[in-house]
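Lecture 7, part B: from sequences to assemblies.

Below are the input chains for today's worked example.
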Amino acid sequence: MSHGLLTLPEAQLEPLRRTYAHARLKKRTQLLLAAALLLGAVILSGITAEVRIDALFAHIDRLSGYIARIFYLENHQPVWTDPAEWFWGLKKWLRLIGETLIIAYLGTIFGALGAFVLCFFAAANLAWSQVLRWFAVRFLEFCRTVPELVFALLFVASFGLGPLPGILALAIHTLGALGKQYSEVVENADMKPFEGVTATGATWPESVRFAILPQVLSNFASYGLLRFEINVRESAIIGFVGAGGIGQDLLVAVRRFYYSDVSAIVLLIIAMVAIIDLATERVRRHLIGREQAP
Amino acid sequence: MSNAGGEQLDLDRLTARYPAIMAGGRWQAARLAFAGFALLASVVAGFASLDISWSRFISGFAELARIIGLMLPPDCGNPARLLLWIKALGETLSIALLGTLTAAVLAFPISLLAARNVTPAWPVRFTIRRGLDTIRGVNTLIWALVWINVIGLGPFAGVLAIMTTDFGTFGKLFSEAFEAADAKQGEAVIAAGGGELHRVRFGLIPQILPVLLSQILYLIESNTRAATIIGIVGAGGIGQHLTEAIRTLEWQQVSFLVLMILVTVAIIDFVSSRVRFAIIGNRPRAAMPHE
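Predicted structure of the full complex, as structure tokens:
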């Protein structure tokens, strides 16, 4: 016992022990309460969402069956035995993939331009007036909360079928999402250069141009590229509602059970997404490298 | 005049003194002009390749204005329909919650296999990462179509679709969180005589658990948005009613439904940001995909 730890006398130790036990009990009760709440929410939503675990396990073979089936041609041969038959519509599909990319590109460009203008009004450190800022922030919120497909449906109703509604829908959503990110970047900018430029007698636009813009531009570009990646994924399905791109053909292939077409189109979409991701990641790395260099 | 002359003189003297900086400015301006021109050209070329009818474009805006006029005031029709929509909204929330939670539970063990500091064998990591990328590369709506083939129409297909996409997303996010963790705590566990599993359990997981929780909360938020539209292909939720209202040109109902969605998303955002704050404090969160 000679090497035992130095302990406090029992009289002092007792209240400490009690506090510790109390703190642990409180923490445990909190955790249990949170777990019970979560469990309740899960059970409730399980009932609302008509979850049928038994049906899932009974039919899970249909999933593997479906995924296997889309890799077989009409003549029951695996698709790779006859690539020409598998990708029979390659020319048309590649054109549609190109259209998909153009929709994503134009949607991103227009959305980013709008966000670029609005973010300076929505940023807390630069806003001219609080009223204007409130409207800008709410407008951006509206643009990014309403899903793209809802805008797409609305625009298809007014502009007719085709890529134009797709571009507009993506542009509006991009405006909302990028506007928020851009204004956050601007809010993180160093304000000292802004004060310095303003002190030389520059107007507000001049101060923004020479003091804020150089600080935020590379971040803007990086976020814009990230949004382009996201928009490429979105534009692939925006055709589900008739707003252009490859989505329409995919939906038709799924609905009409053109099995091998489904796998061909999905593979083309995955390849497109992967290539765009790789390309933009390289550009972004380049941008970030430049930002960190003095 | 004399002032302008002085400025000119100043500029000349400055150019003479700092030739590199002044030339750089001009070079940069030229590059900027070129970039602007390239951007404009690409936009024009893009539009040209899509053969969009411009008369349609102009008349479309008139039509859009007319439709927006028809949307006001928002109106749900009758109370019975409102009740139906509230139920559908509950379905949407359930889809988002269940889909995200199951995805997180399923992705957690897989993400351990995809993290470099847990799984040293690179072939395993590589295979799992590419698999996760492929799952993520297929959109939620496409997964919804696949699951409808398996389980039939209804919200359960929506739950499974969100689960599948987010399985890919969480797998990636979680494994990245593991790799970003501080190695020192794990080393300490090893030094104290712990094994490899002890290192992961006591040195790694407690460290990143708050990060994982905040990512889950964030994805629940973003999936509430995704779950509002998943009904477009028949996988349950409010989207079904929204599509129907648009297809039947009931514009007052459309605006009412959009308002309902906006309010719900705002409430979910608020609650989730409060919970996130309670869990991790005011820590800035890492960049997220599909925001």
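Note for the exam: Residues 115 and 179 of chain B are 6 Å apart (CA to CA). Keep this in mind when comparing with the next example.
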